[in-house]
Amino acid sequence: MQRLSQISYYLRESPMLAAGFIMVSIIVLFGLLGPLFVDTSLAQPLSTTPRMEPSWEHPFGTDDSGRDLLSVMVVGVPLTLRIGLLAGAVGLGLGIVLGFTSGYLGGRFDVVTRGIVDTLLTVPGLVVLVSIASTIREEISVNIMALVVASLAWMWPTRVIRSQVLSMRERAYVQMAKLNGMSTAEIIWKELFPNLLPYLAAQFANAVNWAILSSIGLEALGLGPQNDPTVGMTIYWAITFSALIRGMWWWWAIPIAFIGLIFVGLLMIAVGLDELANPKQRKAV
Amino acid sequence: MSESVNNREPLLDISGLEVHFETRRGIARAVNEVDLTLYKGERFGLVGESGSGKTTMILALLRMIKTPGFIAGGKAVFDDGTDLLALNAEQVRQTRLKRVAMVPQGAMNSLNPVIRIGEQMMLTMREHGEEGERDELMARVVGLLEKVGLKPEAASLYPHELSGGMKQRACIAQAICLNPQLILADEPTSALDVVVQRQIMQTLRQLQIGLDATVLLVGHDMGLMAQFAERVGIMYGGKLVEVGTVSDIFRNPQHPYTQLLISSIPSFETRGDFKGIPGVALSLLDPPSGCLFHPRCPKATDACAQREPTLKEVSPGQWASCLLHEEEHDATAS
Amino acid sequence: MNWNYIVRRVALFLVVVWAAASVNFFVPRLGTGRDPIREKLGQLAASGGLRQDGIEAMVKAYQAKFGLDKPLYVQYLNFLGDTFTLDLGYSLANYPARVGQMIGNAIPWTIGLMVVSVLIGFALGTLIGALSAWPNAPPWVRSLAVPFMTLSAIPPYLLGLIVLYILGLKMQWFPLSGGYSPGMLAIASVDFYLDVLHHSILPALAIVLQAVGFWALGMRGMMVTTSGEDYVTLAEANGLRNRTIFFRYGLRNAMLPQFTALGLSLANVVAGQVIVEVIFAYPGIGTVLFQAIQSSDYTVINGVVLILIMSIGLVTMLMDFLYPLLDPRISHSRQN
Ligand SMILES: Nc1ncnc2c1ncn2[C@@H]1O[C@H](COP(=O)(O)OP(=O)(O)OP(=O)(O)O)[C@@H](O)[C@H]1O
Ligand SMILES: [Mg+2]
């Protein structure tokens, strides 16, 4: 209950956060409720007349191989979200473990972690993922996709959480907790963690964002689940079959609209949470 | 207050100065009808508890009040007749540093970290139309640095290569580069350690005498104030409640607030910030009627809650804003 | 800057290259227990064809280095040796072509497009972001910041599809694909350069549209902090001009973290551009990569991955060396 009122307080404080929340909710609801109203079997190839413009019967039109794009989106949007959430959760989880340990313990562990993270951050993640995904191309499923992306989704969370923990560790209340004889684990769990919640939430939004971005990037290169109509694969097919030049604008514009809504929503959530966590920035603009 | 103190000419005549802050819960009168004349070449100290409007007053004289604040009224007229508060933006810009300069409080971070000290000072001079070859300007910079007790080499250093005291000296050198008539110093040494504080104040004093400039010093440290200032003004809740020479204020304070302030210092001429005085701190958003100080004043009468006192001369050169004195004043006048 | 730092930084760079090469070597072998290059070679040899001789030569050369009779560590050392001598082998799909040569042809296009679009995006975004957080800035700048920040959330290749549709297909202002017109002689003439420029505007626009908001967002936060710094206040009290304060006190200081961010995000910038090139069939390294993926040309995929990682590592290293010139407080000689 208290959590709920806290959340509603945040939403009222930051219109940016609220707007992002609404956009993402629309997408999630679309994926959840869509199957109740739309025949998802039409997402399979050859299930209806190909190359039809949007109409009453097919509000989003149909593609080259006879898929109804509304059904494709109803099936594909949750798949894409699943990749993002799974990879984001794994990335954030790893980031929390590494960031907290590294920031709180300091010393050699910290030096090594920081070195690895800073080095990996300069490596183009998507390119590494291309190298990984291209060798297992035939076997890629939605879950494998999520794991592949998650393998590189933990660096930013680790970096940001580490530096936050580091600055909090110096602050008085942690010092006091130490004097009161709390164990390190207790300090992390009871003192640091609650204070970092807005940061963690922002990092989660960022990690999900990055994961979806990477997965769609891989898919646009053809390195996605070949048999599942994720949003990114839909774009890949549209590119491969030259939908643009053939004037089939709905084929690429509709997945872009969904992706845009997801990304803008997630960005607004991340920025909104960031503003809440750094009140100094919030005031001025 | 037109007659001179120690036969000095007036430099700046502030009258009815009002600064308001618009807050969610109403308007705060941070500076409230302040009248004050500053004389040429004098060292004037401004004291008062936290939130009494000292910084706001200095910023108003620099025309640097930012939203939600604004200057709501008043005049600040120089000896040549220019009203500081009536200038347009470009005139204000040119007046800064040329006539009114500021010595900052937090010298730690008051210099641009990516520009060498000398370059910063030259940039500042050029911005005010000081033409000249690089060498000429650099020679001036070096001269200024020497005046504040810095070696010429300091010109080619970055701020982070200087100590806190040296940074403050550099700021002072910059403040005097165009020979200002009025130097505003808001707690210029509060971030420094005691030994450095004394040295800096001494430097400031020598420079002030050399330039024959007026210094308006804001501070909490009554000991430093007593040593540095010739005249002192006491602020309470945005109002100037008493003005007088250092010895009058310290030996013979007239306003009850000043009396409490002075008696809370352990002994005269020992160092120390004044301590708090009893009573509930003033809220600018919900000020009491009559005299702002009356809820905390040990000598308050019923009249104090009704009528607002104004600044009256209680003895030659000493002014206080208190009904106790107005009655005496009225009594002697009639 | 001292030698100690330089040596350590170069060593770090070499570690990155080594790690990238190791990923290329081990991931296929460990992950699936097979060697896609060997499989592909086997397919090619079995299917026969015009260049049977060449393929046999390739298989032989491959066996000599990576044969199954060789212990894994010998194969690995051979692979590392090839990597550090930049010997990337032959393309599997376009036999006589060498991977190094294919990448070499593509890379000027990629660098040209990237340098221009990254610089424009960075400069414009930084300026807009800074102005949007500056109290004295005109209000219309602020209204500019919001749409750009929205665009920054959308990957550049998707923006590419949109600009391609509007400005290329509907308006027909710009060509739809390629790096220059098909009939054009690729020689150094004014006509050719204008043609190249004409072709590069849409892909560059796609990248810039996304980048501006990204940089503006970061800069806005920094500028808010910086405009509250004491040195900005004192500069104003000293009567400096607004422009001077904005550029030399505000922007100049707020930009320092932007440069660090530029180094860190270069990887993402490159990744985004790779796909933009695919959308526009731009003759850069991204298109090479895409075609290689489509034809399972593993040597080319590995080569492109390696070259991209190396060049980004190189640029990041150079930026680390240059950073002390921008911020006098950072000096590598005093670190640690
Ligand atoms: N930005 C602002 N918004 C609202 N009110 C403000 C603002 N700045 C100042 N004030 C009001 O102005 C009053 C005077 O503040 P000022 O900083 O001038 O006090 P001061 O005498 O310099 O205090 P100190 O000794 O702590 O420096 C404060 O009580 C405060 O209520
Ligand atoms: Mg103050």
Secondary structure layout plus pairing:
The complex is a heterotrimer of chains A (285), B (334) and C (336).
Chain A (H helix, E strand, L loop, with lengths): L1 H12 L1 H23 L31 H37 L1 H15 L3 H11 L6 H9 L4 H16 L1 H8 L4 H37 L10 H10 L8 H29 L1 H6 L1
Helix pairs in contact in A: 1-2, 2-3, 2-11, 3-4, 3-6, 3-7, 3-9, 4-7, 7-9, 8-9, 9-10, 9-11, 10-11
Chain B lengths: L9 E14 L2 E14 L3 E5 L6 H8 L7 E10 L10 H7 L4 E4 L13 H11 L6 H14 L16 H12 L6 E5 L7 H18 L2 E5 L3 H7 L2 E6 L2 E7 H6 L4 H8 L48 E4 L2 E3 L2 H11 L1
Parallel strand pairs in B: 3-7, 3-8, 5-6, 6-7
Antiparallel strand pairs in B: 1-2, 1-4, 8-9, 9-11, 10-11
Helix pairs in contact in B: 3-4, 4-5, 5-6
Chain C lengths: L2 H30 L3 H12 L4 H15 L5 H13 L14 H34 L6 H13 L4 H15 L19 H38 L2 H8 L4 H38 L5 H10 L3 H29 L10
Helix pairs in contact in C: 1-4, 1-12, 2-3, 5-6, 5-8, 5-10, 5-12, 6-8, 7-8, 7-10, 8-10, 9-10, 10-11, 10-12, 11-12
The hetero molecules present are: adenosine-5'-triphosphate, magnesium ion
Calculate the mean pLDDT score of chain A and round it: 85
| CATH topology tier name of the domain at 107-295 in chain C | MetI-like fold
Number of helices of chain A: 12
Measured as a percent range, the helix fraction of chain A is over 70%
How large a portion of the residues of chain C is in β-strands, by DSSP E?
under 5%
Unreliable residue runs of chain A: 281-285
